[in-house]
Amino acid sequence: MKYIEDALSFLSQPLLSTKFGTITLLWIFTFVGIILGFYVLSFLIRRILQSKVFPNYDIDKGTRSAYSRILHYTLMTVGLFTAFNVMGVNLTVLFAGGAALLVGIGFGIQNIANNFISGVIILFERPIKVGDYIEVDGILGTVQSISGRSSKIITNSQIVIIVPNSSFLEKNVVNWSYTKATRIGIPIGVKYGSDLLLVKKVLLDLAAAESKVLEEPEPYVFCEAYGDSSIDLELSVWIDDQSLHRKIKSELNYAIDVAFKANNIEIPFPQRDLHLKSGFSASAAGSV
């Protein structure tokens, strides 16, 4: 018992006296213990939700992550207020007394605060979610995680890029996963005099042969315009795996080259007609 009394006496030694009370080691350990308790509680609840609750409902991966993150932030906020309340700290007085300090800190960490608030907005509004295939600031990839300050995007090259959350609200973001199907448009120019019905058939056969191309919406060949050097067409197909957009477009382009050669369909070079006016004087011709 004496050891316990000595330990409590040591932990109760005042370290700092403030207008909010005396700070001791016991005060610090209790405060931190309450915060850690809520963190563990958040971890356990989120684990139960992910393993036992969410699988029983039709909730996608991105929505699960958003719900878990919002729950975590809520519990940690409650834990912080609980810790202050248990330790006898009057939060009203604390906020009033630390207003000037908070303003100063706010200017120093405004970028961090901006990204954190942006992360909360993303979790609630969900313009993007975990698992979405997106493009932001020239970066194409799949959203791997959304945390408080930043989000991780994994590219097709398996490179993880960390993007500040504010970028998703301040810049133009293309979310290829917003709809179930994504369109691929392949522009093609053929020589004047080509059999357009044959060209159309060849292109549609190629689209049908590609296993990743959807039957609905059905592929289509648009005749766009009669250009300077070619008749401009576009093969339009749809896919449901946005991460394969570039690969499928490349495969179709390879197949088009082979099929056009087999069917004697020509893709013309750009042509320009040069007209020379006659009537140059002899002196002018000699000077040239």
Question: Secondary-structure blueprint of this entry?
Answer:
Blueprint: H1 2-11, E1 14-18, E2 21-24, H2 25-53, H3 61-86, H4 91-97, H5 99-108, H6 110-125, E3 133-136, E4 139-146, E5 150-154, E6 160-164, H7 167-170, E7 173-175, E8 182-190, H8 196-209, E9 220-226, E10 231-239, H9 245-262, H10 282-287
Antiparallel strand pairs: 1-2, 3-4, 3-7, 4-5, 5-6, 8-10, 9-10
What Rg do the Cα atoms give?
A: 33 Å
Reported for the largest beta sheet, the result is: 5 strands, antiparallel
The helical percent reads 40-55%
Give the overall average pLDDT.
80
Q: In one word, what is the shape?
A: elongated
N- and C-termini, Cα separation = 114 Å
Number of discrete domains: 3
Structural class assignment:
alpha+beta
**Percentage beta strand:** 15-25%
Widest beta sheet: strand line-up? 6-5-4-3-7
Helix-strand pattern, N to C?
HEEHHHHHEEEEHEEHEEHH
* Unreliable stretches covering 5 or more consecutive residues: none
SS field, number of helical segments = 10
- Compute the number of strand runs: 10
